[in-house]
Structures are given as structure tokens and as C-alpha cells.
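#help-structures
NK: newbie question, is this the right format to request a structure? protein is Lipoprotein
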Amino acid sequence: MRYTKTMVKRRPSHHWMLLLLLSMSLLLSGCEEPIPGLTKSKIHRDTIIHSTRFHHYELGDTEHAIFYKPVSPDFLLEKYAILRPGRQIQFSSKDMPFKVEKEEAFLVQYGSKESPSYQVQLNYYGKADDYGRYGDLFYKINMMEVKEDPFQSFTPYKDGDRDYLLNRVDVSTDEEGTMFYHFIQTTDSSYAYSSYVENEMGEVIEMTTAADEIMFYKNGFMVEIGYHTPSRYNDPERVPDETVIAEMLATAQKLAKQL
């Protein structure tokens, strides 16, 4: 009896295919190293948000950023001290020029696994509207690590200037030499202000609205503040309330002293 050899092609092992895919994902994962005690958001954006007024920040790799679910600002600043290791930032809702009813903090981790960078957004909301929604009164602070002072090579505005949409620009300097750029809407148009919020599905998403803005750089951090108050205009002709403007700037100056 003669036996015939049959050549059988072996299919690639699913085990090896999974290992290959895992290895590839690790190579592409950037800073995919979650922070203990924080919960990653269900959704990962491709890029982190920052003001649409300037596009020259040197942020490094933001393609593989990790977005975390919101926590209390005090919890994030006190427990982790991410922005200032070994030094706690003394800033809270008590520094707001209005009574805070809701507050939350978002953390975004980006850059390399070996040397991650961070973006922190602190949201403070005043009284909710009749439908329980927050947004008529807020003060939002976006702090992110940058590689260099974006205003070092040029001065975008002088005090008394108007921006491209003809809105008012105030420029001031505190006693430490920190320069503040204050953008105040005085026309019917303004730049879109973006911030992180959590939707009903528990996902971190971007929300865009109108807001007055304050920006400054200090010690490796670019700080962008957006605020909105129902009383920011004291008449129908859109004349800004100077008291509100001064209070919002003073709050930004308090934060700058902590950085």
C-alpha cells in the first residue's frame, strides 16, 4: 500500500497575530500610561484644545493624548500637584468673583511616555438657569505646558488695540512682570471659545461658545481663561461693565502668582 504525502498550509496563529497588533499599538501609543486614581474618558480626541486666537504654541506630540473624566479642582490640584510637583497651587472656588454652584476639573496627558506633558482645565459655574443648565455665568481656566513663551518673539497687541473682529483689547502687566492680554467683546462678533465638558454619555467633548478671554504665559505654562457673565454689559449698546472686567482680571492675577 502506497501512502501519499499531503502538504498542509498552516494558518498564522491567532495568538501571534494578537501579539503583533499589541506590539504595534504600544509603539504608537505615545503617553498611553494612565494616572492611578483617575478614570480615562470613553472618548479620545485627536488633539487638545486651545484658543483659536493663536496657533503657534509648541506643545509637542498631542496625537495620542489621554483625556480623563472630570474631578473636583481641589482634588486634582491638591492630590496630584501635576503642574507644580512638590508645590501645591493655592487656588479654588473661593477666589472666584461670584458664588460657585458647580465646579469641575479636566486633565489631559500628552507627549511621550518618558516625558509626559499636561493640560488642566478648571471650570467654575455660577447659578444654573431655570432648566438646571449651567453656562450663563462661568470662569474657565485652561493651563497647558508649552516649550517656550509664545509671546517672546512678538507682541500680538498693545493696550487699546482692537482684534481682527474689532473687539477691545486691554494689555497690562503685574508687579512680577507677567503680561496679561484681555479680550473683551464689544461687537456682535467674537472668536469662538472652546472648553471641555462631559456629556450625558460620560464622554469628554468640546463645547464652543462666546466668551471674553484673558491670556498670559508664566514659567512654562500658557494660561487661557474664558469667562461669561450675564451682567458684563450694562446697557443695550454693548458697553462693557468695567467693574466686572477688573474683577475677572484680578482673579487671573491671583492665579498667576501661584505659577
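mod (FA): yep, format's fine, and the C-alpha cells are attached above. Residues 1-30 have pLDDT under 50 and may be disordered.
NK: thank you!
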